[in-house]
Amino acid sequence: MALDSEKDLxxxxxxxxxxxxxxxRRGVYxxxxxxxxxxxxxxxxxxxxxxxxxxxxxxxxxxxxxxxxRFGSAEDLGYEEPYPISCIHMRPLSAKFxxxxxxxxxxxxxxxLGMERAAIGDIQAEEKQAYLFCLTSMAAYICENLNxxxxxxxxxxxxxxxxxxxREQPRTEEILVSSLREDVLIAKVYHESRAxxxxxxxxxxxxxxxxxxxxxxxxxxxxxxxxxRGLGKFIVQEQLYETKKGKLCVKTAVYP
Length: 256
Hints:
Blueprint: H1 6-26, E1 30-35, H2 37-44, E2 55-58, E3 67-71, H3 74-77, E4 85-92, H4 103-111, E5 120-126, E6 129-135, H5 136-145, E7 148-149, E8 152-159, E9 171-177, H6 182-189, H7 194-202, E10 206-208, E11 211-212, E12 225-228, E13 232-242, E14 248-255
Antiparallel strand pairs: 1-3, 2-3, 4-6, 4-8, 5-6, 7-8, 9-14, 10-11, 10-12, 12-13, 13-14
């Protein structure tokens, strides 16, 4: 499952139980740090055990991949408490002399500050600037210490504005496949053999619509979002036609 060991799984299960129990018994909100798809899947596999405690995932805006899990609700507790999420605008001091900076560049600079991954949510990057969702407790530290990405001097400011950066635009690909099986489409999109694709499934690296997918034979349908850790993400847009030889032409949107 995308986590390193059974020990990791036990620690996450215990952590979720502790936070849910604290919220239920004390009548307070409790929060995780930012969770990746793997940690979110650990919770979803045990959520039936914790249904007595209201919960919600949120990452700062719609469609974020990394999210914080909050236990508790205003209906049950009688008050509302916001998620401990701040948004930081990161931009060059001089756009004229700035490099083009990618998501990887900004994330690398943050990691070089000694940040824990749980403190960092999604990064929305566009050419020379980016917006970062992070734990509010770490926002001041980031703003004070993150002053360079690669060779570009930058400034960081906490903002209340919703990021208006355009999402990375996918490339449209029309592929011919023998079936709509998930492993077949992944192999075609990423130009890998079926054997290589099956290794991704075995390693817990394949997610469909945010949920871990362990069955490579499952057929995909229009609108399905497939994440393969280490390779990228694509969306099944539509089946265009079937050839005389029985091949299916499928339109996909492939993200870098």
